[in-house]
Specification:
Aminopeptidase; alpha+beta; 7-stranded mixed sheet; 7 strands
């Protein structure tokens, strides 16, 4: 089955639980709610990931029909046509280009269907893989935010990237996200 993008559903709770178990640092990125059981993951999907608010959407990145990652377009600001992009992928799904293809498609979708002109993202400077995904999806580096993130007692610098609707499409094909209903 081809990889794809779709809305999160409660049926994805086991996949989310497995993702958190496989990548414990993922739980910190998803917020403060516990994610150790299918029930807790279903609640997180209901409360955060499946929510289709006017200012935020999250898409499940799938492989073989199973959710293996997320691409979020949040902090959508209509007046200026800007939004923030975030993403994650299970450890076992990395290295196959899934996230790059998904991010490329989501950016194209946000630019055209959501009318977002400027998409922004940031990654810890020690996350080389996230930087590679951003660059491959056409997000140019713009700057460094010193000590922006704190996980536990450690602070991390963040490199910011952006992609404009007028930027050329990166080489390669992407996936088509669902239409907003």
């Amino acid at each position: 089955m081809e990889p794809g993008l779709r809305w999160w559903t409660a049926a994805d709770a086991p996949a989310l639980r497995d993702a958190v178990a496989e990548s414990p640092d993922l739980a910190a990125q998803l917020g403060d709610a516990p994610l150790g059981s299918v029930r807790e993951c279903a609640a997180a999907i209901e409360e955060r990931l499946a929510d289709r608010r006017a200012d935020a959407v999250n898409l499940a990145l799938t492989a073989d029909g199973r959710a293996v990652g997320n691409i979020g377009v949040t902090r959508i600001e209509r007046r200026h046509g800007t939004a923030w992009v975030s993403y994650w992928l299970t450890t076992s799904s990395r290295g196959r280009g899934l996230l790059t293809r998904g991010l490329t498609s989501t950016a194209r979708w946000a630019h055209h269907d959501l009318d977002i002109f400027r998409l922004e993202l940031g990654h810890r400077v020690d996350n080389v893989a996230s930087c590679a995904v951003a660059r491959a999806a056409g997000f140019g580096a713009e700057g460094l935010e010193r000590a922006k993130l704190r996980y536990g007692d450690t602070r991390y610098d963040v490199e910011t990237h952006a992609r404009l609707a007028t930027d050329p499409l990166p080489v390669g094909s992407g996936m088509r996200p669902p239409r907003i209903a």
